[in-house]
Specification:
This protein has 317 residues and is an alpha+beta fold. It is built from nine helices and 18 strands. The strands form three sheets. It has a six-stranded mixed beta sheet, sandwiched between helices. It has a six-stranded antiparallel beta sheet with strand order 7-6-17-14-9-10. It has a six-stranded antiparallel beta sheet with strand order 13-12-11-8-15-16, with helices on one face. A hairpin with a 2-residue loop joins β6 and β7. α1 packs parallel to α5, α2 crosses α3 and α6 packs across α7.
Length: 317
Amino acid sequence: MASSPLTGQEPFFIVLNTGSGRDDARDVQATIRQVLDAAGRRYELLPVDDGRHLPAAAQSAVERARQHQGIVVAAGGDGTLSAVAQAVLDTGLPFGILPQGTFNYFGRTYGIAQDTEAATHCLLAAQPQPVQVGLVNGRVFLINASLGLYPQLLEDREAYKRRYGRSRSVALWSALVTLARAHRQLALQLEHAGQSRALRTPTIVVGNNALQLEQIGIAEADELQRGRLVAMGVKPVGTLAMYALVLRGWLSRLGDADHVFSFGFDRLTVRVGRGRRRIKVAMDGEIHWLDTPLEFTVSPRPLQLLVPPEAQRSERA
């Protein structure tokens, strides 16, 4: 269900992660202020320099938006957007984004510019649109959630970014280095649609973003249009085979590989072998420890995302 159309006078309460993104945080803040001041739009900036403080800042923005019939806006990478969405989801408040990350799959999916000035201009004319949200053990993810090898890839990627800067080439190089090392196989039990399946795999990824799934070549991307999520995994393989899978993903042909499996689902339970009570899960690029078993599902309530008019939308690629 869509929320009521906006009047264009609602104030923005903007949670800005100053520790994420490609640009200098001061420049980002200056750009946001310049655009909104010129438009005469009311707003409050809530800068956060430590990701651990994002939930508190997001809750503060939600409370302020409720008091003033306003809009909560998240400015940062996909992890920041996800953290703020967690606080917004159950409130029904309109949610805007100013993407600042490396890949920005969430913003690109809905035609929201990666350039801060353009994205801020788009906020002024945007209207809320219901958007599907994934949940794992009740926690929000917008793009994907994963366990096993993929969280390790993310941790290594962040280390490389701190040393060499944020770029897609750095992300790819760090992935190749990580894959060169030996990786542990997870013993898992997957339960969905009344069936149970035991397997060993280096990683399981649950996707909620059609653009990402399409770009790596997963045929089940259209399952998202039916209100479902998509699970992907890799059968046990050696290092050279893993490199081949990375190449296939780069060429949008990952789904064709013999060692890859994928399927759509409404609800998925993942049980981890050896009695593990907690496991590391990567959610939209951020690492969390969650209790097992893991329960994946679509949120019964959509996120009311501010999407710009068709004429102002950017290319998804």
